[in-house]
Design brief:
Blueprint lengths: L1 H9 L9 H14 L6 E3 L26 E3 L32 H8 L3 H6 L38 H24 L2 H6 L35 H18 L2 H14 L2 H14 L32 H21 L24 H4 L54 H8 L4 H19 L11 H7 L2 H9 L4 H15 L2 H9 L35 H7 L2 H7 L1 H7 L2 H12 L3 H17 L1 H9 L3 H9 L17 H12 L2 H10 L2 H9 L10 H20 L5 H5 L1 H9 L12 H23 L1 H6 L23 H14 L7 H22 L7 H21 L1 H6 L16 H11 L8 H12 L6 H8 L17 H10 L1 H11 L4 H11 L26 H10 E4 L2 E4 L6 H18 L9 H8 L1 H4 L8 H14 L20 H15 L4 H8 L8 H10 L11 H4 L4 H4 L6 H12 L9 H15 L7 H15 L4 H9 E4 L7 E3 L5 H21 L1
Helix pairs in contact: 5-10, 9-10, 12-13, 13-16, 15-16, 16-22, 19-20, 22-23, 22-25, 25-26, 25-28, 27-28, 28-31, 31-34, 33-34, 33-35, 38-42, 40-44, 41-44, 43-44, 44-47, 48-50, 50-53, 53-54, 53-55, 54-56, 55-57
Length: 1295
């Protein structure tokens, strides 16, 4: 044990605390112990020196003098390079002989010897055959001096370059020498033409046509007669070729091409290509413009790298070609040049014809139209220039290289010019892009250009181009970029429409202008828990500027710090009025994007302060030089849009930024007293009223109403002084008065909430009740009488043609005000029902009825479905119900309260109208037998039960829409005018209608999502939640009512979508479809869907909405049928319906292939299916795999008439048509026909044999469901005899 301990201590690993003496002692212990080492010692060969590895070419006695290389596993042999470039290798090191044990000093002395050693090795060159040339006699006394300029064209090579060239020449000679020794035949074979490119005949040049070999030069041979020896070798090769036949030459050629390196073959062909032009081309070989080419004999794979011989041969060829080009590119004659150069011209000593081509006249433009797509070109105004239009050159539209004859600039050229060094070019290109964007947004290019111009520009990076241009130090370029950005973001038509609809019902509210494309969920988050997934904000921060800009242009610009730059332009640059207006419109568009974007505009340092101080001052003096220091309507509109984003933003504007003070200054005086232009004064007061209306919509700025009440009354009285229609200011005056009425409407709503808030009776969502506004109901009651008089006056003015248009514009806003007044009046303590009813009767008789019966109003609604005012309202209840059902799936976010009200009051209320009479006249037939399937006659009983259950059905649907409760409350506050509770006038994001078009299926779909879980390709069915049966029953009852009485309401749902959603009845649970109420209702819906008038519209080849294909759903249905159906007749009919002949073959292949076992339980008769059998048998099947499956299932007994009558008849029909078909077909199909016919003939089952051979036509009224021949028709009998005869003859031949 002590000995083992000593050994362990001897072989311990070194420690950091060991000294050098300890390490040496441990090394000695290790060497004496003889223990195996942890690392192996190998001899690594040096590939660059051509050395062999360990044990190769070395004797054992020299191993001791070699260096030991220690290699450790998983450690590279060489250190990694610090640079990405490969290590440099010397071209000449491999040719030097070195030894490992050689001393470097001795090697240096051997190479650096004394000059005597060099002189002693001088060998005199043989000059016996060198011709001697005497110098030419001249009349000059001294030889001509050689000037350096005369030798400038000679290429001088350095010693290193000459050494490399000599090495390449040596390698090429070595390669050719080895080639001539190894295979002398391919030299002469490859330097001749073996194949004729035109006729394919063999052609060999004669010895007289070839002056010598093309590959072997004889330079490597020693002796004075090297060239003669080379010629003799060449003649021998020629003689051998002459003695060989054409087939032998081709065979040898194939062998050589197979054996030789493809790079060597390429080298030989390149040498041949150099020498071919010196020989006359035979007449059989046609010449083209590029010269004679070597026809490819065999497809040879060429590698990317090339051998040294190929490199050596490419260089002289390149030099030669360059020389030829220099000789061919002689200067053109002076008459061919556009101008004649003069000696006096500066820097014209060297002629450059390609540059002089710019001075030549342009070619004529295209005169005729073409169907070929051409590049779009635009002028500086953004107008598309036709290709055939010939414009003068002085317009500056021809300064481009591509298509010089066409005027205008392409988008690519404009992008290039926008990054030019010339300021004018940058400015002009950006202005042109702005004009193009403006016309593209107006739709001027839709009919003449393919694709979208705006999308093309955005994909090309327009946002980044404009953002970079905004940073330009030149004000002109910056101004052009601002104008282009405004053209991209702002749509003037949209802004005008939003301004015009501001005074409509709920006109204050607007949708955020977000992109419609939805962002796809990251694949990284798939399969993670909700707590592990990244939030939307984290994902947004992780994206790059390009990714954000590609999805949302406004977000991308905000991420690129657009707002600080716009602030700098307004505050520091102080540009022209047009640029200021563009910047304000851009800010307005950003504020419309979303509430977060509006918050960023408010939070940008000094941006809003600059807008308020420079463009909404409290005092100003008229100036025509600059708009700085003057109030601007566009700045007031920016404040209004920012206030729309939320009540907190509005409060910041009114209190922190001084917007309330600006409203007082602008609205306390008449527009003509504001020291502004008339149009601008009307616009800015209109925007001030709108901003005030938005603030009053939150219950804010109401104290201002009390302070400015006299000014408001004065403005109301001015309505009688509206200018005539011919006055250009009349539209602005109307808009100003509409904004004033909108303000009064919102103040009325706010005042109506004062009493409720004062009493503290209502709290919103458990939060503290907001404070009551300073305005009460008594402050607004005095306006109703005067406004009522105005309304009656405008109704009378409808008869005046000059005032008709203005009256039609104002009347709807008065009606909106009166609706707000009487709605809020009913909530006040001072409300007197009797007096209010009398007022409403007077209003109806004096105003509303004359208005509705007026010819002008009748003309406006003539295209609508007019509902006459009749005392018998019950007669029109059906119409009201139909309108409610049509409107319901079209309501957008923000109208959730209307959805709730329609569902609660109208949609699920039994009208008692014509439907009740129809219901009483229906013949109600109860089922007499349990196994029989219900028919259409039993639908009446189901309808009667559904009408009784309408209140329960309404409760079912309202329960499934309970998730909209919070949205309903927010929408209710906005619709009913509960202004102090409104948080924002910005509506939710517009992602589509509130309810989907297939909302009647919602209970069924939600149940499927809860219980049907796809796992591993199958369908795992969980336990149904409580009340699921009742919910499904109510859903099916409602669907039955709609299908019978309100079919128009379900027209938006495709029949395939109806079938797919009703399939959830079978997929939700293993026994839900077996429940009696569910089974009866589903049978009724199945009968309605499979009526003869509806079957053709049921196209299962179209993917249902929400599914990739119907085949996926059918696969789940079939799997569920095999698992839980127990041969249920309803489920069987549901599975059989998609197997009709006109639908996809995939579903029939799935049944007869993967799920063939279900054929034993599909026992539905043709009467129960209620679908004509011809839809399963016609036209004949043409899928050979499916026909084979039909035949196999019949022959093997898998498919029997007693088990599956419908598919048995279908399979018989298709197999019978196939085996006796006379149509021409492929050999495989014909062979399958013969094989099936022979097998059928020799069947032992006589019944099946007779069915297959004697089948005639399907007949559903017969016992067998098909008709049979008594005996085979003659033509079929002959075919059977022919097929059997062919078999007997083949058997005889085999014997």
């Amino acid at each position: 044990m002590s000995k083992r301990l000593i050994e362990d201590t001897m072989l311990r690993r070194p420690k950091p605390t060991d000294s050098e003496a300890d390490l040496l002692r441990e090394q000695e212990h290790f060497l004496t112990s003889g223990a195996p080492s942890a690392a192996s010692v190998v001899r690594r060969p040096d590939k660059r020196r051509g050395e062999a590895g360990e044990g190769e070419g070395r004797s054992g006695e020299n191993e001791g003098s070699q260096r030991d290389v220690v290699t450790i596993e998983d450690l590279p042999d060489q250190l990694p390079s610090l640079t990405p470039a490969p290590p440099k290798k010397s071209r000449f090191k491999a040719s030097r002989v070195t030894f490992e044990d050689e001393d470097a000093e001795e090697r240096l002395d051997r190479h650096d010897t004394h000059i005597s050693a060099v002189l002693s090795r001088i060998v005199e060159r043989d000059t016996s055959s060198t011709p001697i040339s005497l110098p030419a006699f001249t009349g000059m006394a001294f030889p001509k001096v050689l000037h350096r300029s005369e030798t400038s064209n000679q290429v001088k090579k350095s010693i290193f370059a000459r050494q490399i060239a000599a090495q390449k020449l040596k390698e090429c000679k070595t390669t050719l020498h080895s080639l001539s020794e190894a295979a002398p035949t391919p030299e002469t074979t490859m330097d001749t033409d073996q194949c004729d490119a035109a006729g394919g005949e063999l052609h060999i040049f004669s010895s007289t046509a070839v002056s010598g070999p093309r590959l072997v030069s004889g330079q490597g041979l020693q002796g004075p007669d090297s060239s003669g020896e080379t010629m003799r070798i060449h003649m021998e090769n020629q003689a051998k070729l002459q003695a060989m036949s054409q087939s032998e030459i081709l065979e040898e050629q194939k062998k050589l091409l197979f054996q030789l390196d493809p790079r060597l073959v390429d080298f030989v062909r390149s040498r041949k290509a150099q020498s071919v032009p010196s020989f006359p081309s035979p007449s059989k070989h046609p010449k083209d413009k590029s010269g004679t080419e070597d026809p490819p004999v065999q497809d040879v794979s060429r590698e990317s790298g090339s051998c040294s011989a190929a490199v050596l041969c490419q260089k002289p060829q390149e030099v030669k070609m360059e020389g030829e080009e220099e000789e061919l590119s002689a200067p053109p004659p002076a008459e061919d040049l556009p101008v004649k150069p003069q000696k006096e011209w500066v820097h014209m000593d060297k002629l450059e014809p390609e540059k002089l081509e710019w001075l030549r006249d342009l070619p004529e433009p295209r005169r005729k139209g073409t169907k070929k797509a051409m590049q779009a070109r635009f002028d500086f105004a953004g107008t598309l220039i036709p290709p055939t239009e010939d414009l003068p050159t002085h317009l500056g539209l021809h300064h481009h290289g591509e298509e010089p004859e066409r005027a205008g600039y392409s988008l690519q050229e404009l992008f290039l010019l926008s990054r030019s060094q010339v300021i004018q070019q940058r400015t002009l290109s950006l202005s042109t892009l702005a004009n193009i964007l403006s016309k593209a947004c107006a739709g001027e290019y839709v009919s003449v250009l393919k694709g979208s111009v705006t999308s093309t520009l955005l994909d090309a990076g327009l946002l980044f181009l404009l953002r970079f241009a905004l940073d330009d130090s030149v004000e002109g370029v910056m101004s052009a970029a601002v104008h282009a950005l405004k053209a991209l973001l702002v749509c003037a038509e949209d802004e005008e429409c939003l301004d015009c609809t501001f005074s409509w019902f709920r006109g204050l509210s607007s949708f955020p202008l977000l992109p419609s494309a939805q962002e796809e969920e990251d694949e990284e988050d798939e399969g993670l828990d909700e707590s592990m997934k990244e939030t939307a904000k984290e994902k947004e921060e992780r994206k790059s500027d390009h990714e954000v800009a590609r999805q949302d242009a406004v977000k991308g610009l905000l991420k690129m710090k657009l707002l600080p730059r716009l602030r700098y332009i307004l505050e520091v640059v102080r540009p022209s009025p047009r640029v200021v207006q563009d910047v304000l419109e851009i800010l307005t568009r950003i504020a419309r994007h979303s509430s977060s974007s509006a918050t960023q505009v408010l939070d940008c340092p000094r941006l809003m302060e600059t807008v308020m101080s420079e463009f909404l001052p409290t005092s100003w003096s008229p100036s025509s030089q600059s708009i700085y220091g003057l109030p601007l309507s566009s700045a007031m509109k920016l404040l209004r849009v920012l206030a729309t984003s939320g009540r907190h933003a509005c409060a910041r504007l009114l209190n922190s930024l001084g917007a309330s003070e600006r409203l007082s200054h602008l609205l306390s005086a008449e527009p003509n007293e504001l020291l502004l232009e008339p149009t601008e004064s009307l616009r800015i007061t209109t925007e001030a009223y709108r901003l005030w209306a938005v603030a009053a919509g939150y219950g804010q700025a109401c104290k201002l109403y009390i302070d400015l009440y006299p000014a408001l009354v004065t403005a109301l009285q001015s309505v009688h002084r509206l200018p005539p229609a011919s006055d250009p200011l009349q539209p602005l005056q109307l808009q100003r008065f509409l904004a004033l009425l909108s303000l009064l409407t919102q103040v009325t709503h706010t005042a109506g909430c004062h009493q409720e808030l004062q009493a503290g009776m209502v709290s919103s969502g458990g939060e503290e009740c907001p404070p009551p506004p300073p305005v009460s109901w008594g402050h607004v009651t005095g306006l109703q009488t005067s406004l009522m008089g105005h309304l009656k006056g405008f109704i009378k003015n409808l008869d005046d043609p000059l005032q008709k248009d203005g009256s039609l514009t104002l009347i709807p806003v008065y009606l909106v005000y009166l609706e707000a007044y009487y709605h809020q009046l009913s909530r006040q303590n001072c409300f007197k029902p009797v007096e209010t009813l009398q007022e409403l009767e007077l209003l109806t008789s004096d105003a509303l009825l004359p208005l509705m019966s007026h010819s002008v109003v009748q003309g406006l609604i003539k295209n609508l479905k007019y509902v006459p005012l009749d005392s018998e309202i019950a007669k029109h209840a059906s119409l009201y119900h139909q309108v409610a059902l049509v409107v319901l799936p079209w309501l957008l976010p923000g109208s959730e309260y209307l959805v709730h009200e329609l569902l609660s009051t109208i949609v699920f209320r039994h009208s008692g109208g014509p439907e009740a009479v129809e219901l009483g006249e229906l013949k109600l037939h109860e089922e007499t037998q349990k196994d029989t399937s219900p028919s259409l006659q039993t639908v009446g009983a189901l309808l009667r039960e559904a009408c009784v259950q309408l209140p329960s059905i309404r409760g079912c649907f309202l329960t499934h829409l309970a998730h909209l409760e919070s949205s309903v409350i927010v929408s209710r506050d906005a619709l009913l005018g509960h202004n102090p509770w409104i948080k924002s006038h910005l509506l939710p994001e517009l992602t589509g209608p509130i309810l989907p078009s297939d909302w009647p299926f919602l209970p069924l779909l939600s149940l499927y999502e809860q219980s049907g879980v796809s796992d591993g390709g199958g369908l795992a069915v969980e336990e149904l939640p409580q009340g699921a049966l009742q919910a499904v029953t109510h859903c099916l009852q409602w669907l039955l009512l709609l299908e019978v009485w309100r079919e128009e309401a379900l027209k938006v749902v495709l029949p395939v979508a109806k079938f797919a959603r009703l399939s959830c009845v079978f997929l939700c649970s293993s026994d839900l479809f077996l429940e009696r109420p569910v089974q009866r209702l589903t049978w009724g819906l199945f009968r309605l869907l499979t009526r003869s008038t509806k079957l053709d519209s049921l196209d299962l080849n179209v993917p249902p909405p929400g599914l990739a294909s119907f085949q996926d759903l059918y696969s789940a249905l079939v799997s569920q049928y095999e698992a839980v159906s127990f041969g249920d007749r309803l489920f069987s009919c549901w599975v059989l319906l998609p197997l009709q002949r006109r639908y996809s073959t995939t579903m029939r292949l799935a049944v007869f292939g993967e799920h063939v076992g279900m054929l034993r339980s599909l026992g539905v008769t043709l009467e129960q299916l209620s679908i004509p059998i011809e839809r399963f048998t016609s036209p004949p099947e043409d899928s050979l795999p499916l026909l084979r499956l039909y035949f196999r299932s019949l022959v093997t007994g898998t498919l029997k008439r007693s088990w599956c009558p419908v598919l048995y008849v279908a399979a018989l029909s298709h197999v019978n048509s196939f085996i006796f078909s006379q149509d021409a077909a492929a050999q495989e199909v014909e062979t399958a026909r013969h094989s099936m016919l022979r097998k059928i003939y020799y069947l032992t089952d006589e019944v099946l044999r007779s069915h297959l051979l004697l089948f005639r036509l399907p007949q559903h009224h017969l016992q067998l469901s098909f008709d049979m021949y008594e005996q085979l028709p003659p033509i079929r009998a002959k075919r059977l005899e022919r097929v059997l005869g062919l078999q007997e003859s083949s058997v005889d031949k085999g014997d």
